[in-house]
Hints:
Layout (H helix, E strand, L loop, with lengths): L8 E3 L2 E3 L3 H12 L5 E2 H9 L10 H18 L11 E8 L2 E8 L7 H12 L4 H13 L16 H24 L3 H14 L4 H18 L2 E6 L8 E6 L9 E7 L17 H9 L4 H12 L6 E2 L11 E2 L5 E6 L2 E11 L5 E2 L2 H18 L5 E4 L13 H18 L6 E6 L1 H4 L5 H10 L8
Parallel strand pairs: 7-15, 8-12, 8-14, 14-15
Antiparallel strand pairs: 1-2, 3-5, 4-5, 6-7, 9-10, 11-12, 12-13
Helix pairs in contact: 1-2, 1-3, 4-5, 4-6, 5-6, 6-7, 7-8, 11-12, 12-14
Amino acid sequence: xxxxxxxxxxxxxxxxxxTPLTIRLLxxxxxxxxxxxxxxxxxxxVWGLADEPRHLDQRNRNEVQKRVLELRRALAPGRDAAGTxxxxxxxxxxxxxxxxxxxxxxxxxxxxxSRFTAIVGDALLAPPATAAHRLAxxxxxxxxxxxxxxxxxxxAVPFVRRLTGLQESARRxxxxxxxxxGRPELALPIAELIAYEHPDDAEAARVLDALRxxxxxxxxxxxxxxxxxxxGQRTDVVLLRGDLFDQEDCNLVVGFSDTFDTETAEDLVIxxxxxxxxxxxxxxxxxxxLLDDKLRAGLRKTKAVGTETARSKPLGRRxxxxxxxxxxxxxxxxxxxxxxxxxxxNDLVARSSDRDLRLGLENLWASVAVHGLFKPVAIPLIGxxxxxxxxxxxxxxxxxxxxxxxxxxxxxxxxTPELRVVIRPQDLARTDLTPVEQRFQDxxxxxxxxx
Length: 451
């Protein structure tokens, strides 16, 4: 029998319909919690009738007996009088003489409020993992106020108060158990509900603030995280405030020009503040020639598109490769993917375009699929530095990187478990992330754009 919400009587899992008066009778007996209720009390509480002399109230007695018979038949359909073992008739001795009373006898598993009480009682004494499981089970039984059909009736008040108090304890203990287990994300919605229902409860507000702070701290420098919205994909896209070279568990992506220059002397060819220069210093301990050797080895199978003369390009490397060329450079068990997305003019100015960057990214993901070792991939905001894509702002560049990655995931399953777009802290204020959020929102099944 379900009373933690709209009343529903079930026999062998089949719902039984009762008339409104019979439902009130049933709830009055449930609220007695196993105690016998005299007929006079039932008439007052269920029918709202005042006491009358015995010789005048026979018709009212017959009405009670009629509803009792209906309830017994509902409790044990198809079995003559079998309901008497559940709804028992007793005789009580009062100052007015003997009086008939009725007692509802249910096993704990037959009434959801009894199951709820037993489960919560056990869970409050259990260790956190068991408590969290059992409390969640108990709270799943509650679908509204207990005895809602007789809410406010005097006979229901103590029973409802006890159950709602137990429900409140179960919620608060579940929050505590989830926090003990390091699962603030599971505790948060329950804590929010408690704070909403008790706006003046300072402790509830404090717990909610602590949970939110814990979740914010968990994100650390994460600015955004979304699962790639494609069937069968378990790949996340993360936008991160930080330093590309601090991502030590990742393959890295570094943008180059079509000549794959690395010379930083006097900032003439490559700026010492560039990602390429940091690559030399931080992953190759300043040994630029070692990086050059690895790049040359990776480019051996790529056909050059031209070679500049010393007169036309006196500084830097002179062999040009197709824009979009990607080289997977092995470094300490991972890869640095060097992608050429710009052209370095003989005036030593790098120039790129939306089209060049798209081509470079398309080739990058293809190379990651082959050489990426299924490691996370970290990429800076390429196209925003000296070799900037002038027709796109920073937010649009982020969206372009993410869009190309999602498209690649559709073509290349098991590409990487995670793409991290790393944005320098000093660039964050100038980077609008709205286009990326909108992109994922549009891809959610059921959204207007997805349709």
